[in-house]
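Write out the bound-state structure for magnesium ion.
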Amino acid sequence: MNARDEESSSGVGALISARGLRKSYGKTEALRGASVDLHAGEILAVTGTSGSGKSTLLHCLSGITRADDGVVTYGKEDLGLLPDQRLSELRRGAFGVVFQFGQLIPELTALDNVALPLLLAGMRRGPAQQKAGEWLERFGARGQAGLRPGEMSGGQSQRVALARALVTEPKAVFADEPTGALDSLAGEQVMTALLHTARDMGTAVLLITHDAQIAAYADREVWLRDGVVHSASADVLAREAVRREG
Ligand code: ADP
Ligand code: MG
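---
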């Protein structure tokens, strides 16, 4: 093994590194030894068919779920060993998450949804709302500031959800099919907004998608099959092997 392989296999230099993750739900093995690195500032697409373990991987990497086995490290911290309090601190500050259906709080206006992570982080209401307004502006959703989620279109809600995920200026954003519920134009607008902002701020993005066009925005792509992560190069080799056999 040369120095470079060694470095990538141990996850040195990665912002978040997962090795050998296993996670089962009853008899269903969602992850069966999944390993992946997310580097600072990179946009990594994770593709795979439905049920291949993509969401479970995202939940383990972002500290939403603890894996049954394997290790997730963020800097020097092992997420599996962190107390709940530190995990939620990470989820509220260093990590941002966006889901397919925004999962905004229905009772709050767009502005208050975006201000919420700042309030939870201890910012006072005035400055939090000011900053939330700036982030809505950035995602072209300033006009929706006073609306509640039920009063917005899917594309508008997702832009508000992005503003909420990025308002704390996280190191990493985890996006689980963020455009999956949108038509292609709205999807493209949401993706463009996310990627421009991530590039501007040097935010790493782990982007789950089953849409090849969306994956094409990423710097790098890996995919999951049966709970194991495959890199593009490994798959090219596998396809080559199949071709030679056939
Ligand atoms: P993907 O996001 O790629 O569609 P998931 O990570 O959601 O895949 O799911 C992987 C497997 O784990 C699937 O078989 C799914 O049915 C199962 N699974 C995921 N979450 C749960 C859960 N909370 N309870 C039971 N089974 C689950
Ligand atoms: Mg999923």
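---
Strands lie at 16-25, 28-38, 43-47, 69-74, 77-78, 95-98, 172-176, 204-208, 220-225, 228-231.
The CA atoms of residues 162 and 212 lie 21 Å apart.
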